[in-house]
Design a protein that fits this description.
Mean pLDDT: 86
Radius of gyration: 29 Å
Largest sheet: none
Helix content: 55-70%
Shape: flat
Structural class: mainly alpha
Number of strands: 0
Length: 126
Amino acid sequence: MVTKQIKELEAAKAKMVALEKSIARGLHKELAALHKTYGYATLNDFVKALKAVCGPARKTRRGKPAKAAAKAKRRKRAVITDETRAGVKKLVESGKSGSQIAKALGISLPSVQNIKKALGLVKPRA
């Protein structure tokens, strides 16, 4: 019984591999002829037209696309003062969550966690 199922599984796997190869060949053929479908004489002409529509892919110094780098604005470092620590302590005692405290005081969640740890407001792990 089990050996029959194992053989069926092996046959299904072999069929799946053959199907994947067939799909890859068909996709390759379609992509190779794509420029003709849209009326371009050569693949290079088609690529140039695509680049003209999409614009050049500019990269920043770190290799990320320029748009992605523009989205990721760097925040200024928060200055943790005694007032900030007192505010964290007050908000913790009033029952606010770490993310609520971070948002209210304009500091990061890890900063809130570090302040809570320094003030002894965090229970030690068991």
